[in-house]
Design goal:
By secondary structure, the protein is α/β, with parallel strands linked by helices. It is built from nine helices and six strands. The strands form two sheets. Strands 1-2-3 form a three-stranded mixed sheet. It is elongated and about 90 Å long.
Length: about 240
């Protein structure tokens, strides 16, 4: 018996959404020569939380797609038809890949930062109050100068203790930065997606460079005011974000 018009429409919608997701996976992976759907899905799962979140469903949809396409008897007859709920779900996944969440959505906001002439006492108070391990430091011209970390502060204190006493009143952030390591920091704009964010950490890992933080600004410039900051610990939020949406 031939499928009804409604069943045919659902099958066509499913195929269209699946093919669009396949194209998205190709793009995410840089259009490799091997563009097998499952191969691309496995690669994308490792790199991106959004794919990871939908991996099991997409794996099952690949099997359904193969049944629809390869076991199709004629143009108007399939041996199986997808349920409406399945079609709506794959279209929702396709929409998520078209418009993935923004990196700013998982960033720590607002960003507490200091100027290069900020007193060390204020910075130490902030470390204690906000329970963080680093603050961005900016010059008077809003130029990013580096990350000031609690390790850097301890390093400075250990070098400047005299007779069990330390004078911090006139010590500035710029004095601590001189002892800081050259931390790897990258910048993204508020328009960049979670895919862009995860790719930043992935590229740094491939280059054997630990990415200390990604700072998000309005235009992606290091000379602009920080709107959000993402560390490796914040990446956990990305998987949680997928669970909540």
């Amino acid at each position: 018996m031939d499928g009804s018009r409604q069943e045919l429409e659902l099958a066509e919608r499913f195929e269209i959404a699946f093919n669009q997701i396949h194209q998205q996976l190709k793009m995410i992976n840089g259009y490799p020569k091997n563009d097998n759907f499952m191969e691309l899905l496995q690669r994308s799962k490792i790199k991106h939380s959004v794919i990871r979140h939908h991996f099991d469903n997409l794996k099952q949809y690949a099997k359904l797609r193969n049944a629809l396409v390869h076991e199709k008897i004629r143009d108007d007859y399939y041996i199986a038809y997808p349920h409406r709920e399945v079609v709506e779900e794959i279209e929702k996944i396709k929409q998520t890949l078209d418009q993935p969440p923004k990196a700013i959505d998982v960033a720590t906001r607002p960003v507490l930062f200091f100027k290069s002439n900020s007193h060390l006492t204020k910075i130490v108070e902030a470390f204690n109050r906000f329970k963080v391990s680093q603050f961005p430091i900016y010059g008077e011209d809003q130029q990013f100068l580096g990350l000031l970390t609690n390790d850097g502060v301890v390093r400075w204190l250990s070098r400047n203790m005299h007779n069990d006493c330390i004078q911090m009143g006139e010590v500035r952030a710029s004095d601590i930065l001189k002892l800081e390591k050259n931390h790897n920091v990258r910048f993204l704009s508020e328009k960049n997606s979670i895919f862009d964010l995860e790719s930043s950490f992935e590229r740094s890992f491939e280059q054997n460079l630990k990415l200390k933080a990604v700072i998000i600004t309005g235009d992606g410039s290091q000379h602009s005011k920080p709107l959000g900051i993402v560390t490796t610990w914040d990446l956990i939020k990305i998987d949680r974000y997928g669970d909540e949406n």
